Amino acid sequence: MSPDLTERKIEELPYHLQKSRNFVALRELLCDWQVFDRLFTSQHEDDLFKYWAAIEEQARSGGNASHGNDGESDMEMSDTEGKKERQLESLLVTYYMDMLKNRAFPANAVRGAIVLKLANFFQESSHHGKSPRIYFDDFPASLPSSFIDAAEIAFLKAKEYYQLGTQPLEVANVDNALANLYHIQAKHEEAVEILQDTILVYTQQKGESALEVAVTLNKLAQVLMYSKNQSADEGAGAAVAGKNDSMLVGLARAKETLNRAIDICQRNMSIGLEHSVAADIYYTLGCAEFMTRFEPFVALLFDSVSETHSFLFLSP
Fold this sequence. Notes:
By secondary structure, the chain is mostly helical. It has helices at 7-19, 23-30, 33-39, 45-61, 91-102, 111-125, 147-164, 168-184, 188-206, 211-226, 246-267, 276-293, 295-304; strands spanning 86-88, 134-136. A two-stranded antiparallel sheet has the order 1-2.
């Protein structure tokens, strides 16, 4: 992409390519790192999803109005008998993962930052809306077939780039996002381990009363509230060990963690108890107290819904 990537070009070029049904050119434009970086913002991200939806709809319908070779689409699906079909959640996974693999970054790009942005895009795509079912033959088995898998790969790659640059705070920020992804997937043990490491980094780099420590402690408590098979010999969990109830153990550990976060808010004058972070911590603490008091009903509720809805109570 040329350096004259003006705001007008970002707004109008993909729009006109879509309207003219030049889907090959549109896809090539969207797979430019600089264009992606400019489009995946609060101002343009809805347009980015809309353009990919148009590309996927074109592939799903098998049309040939994309100005490919000899007037045929290079995304057209084949009906040849015996070819193996592979279902994808979205074509954007295919093309963006290929873009990540090729590593054709702009000269002035911070690789960790732009790959982290791609990871966030994948994660947001997972709940942005249902994508058309796309079938591809000869799709490489090594590539992820879901937004969540793609997000995890991109988060880990972003972390790798920041580690190469010896940037511990940026690595911690990526880990925070990765832990949130694991929490959504109900991979609680992985999330707890990552968040504990992240808290250690923030404490070493910014001090034990830093805002980032309080925020991450709140996240850790949210994961602990829904984690199972926790050791009953750690911290406040020992007090309820006799009940042999992993949920109560996790809730006890969560409340212990939240009290530590509240103490940070009290000691840090820049945060204080009236700060929005303190409000979030108290909200999580209220959820933990509710779940503790009504534990039998909460356990019954958890048995009736998927574990992937573990953030049920944590959306104020």
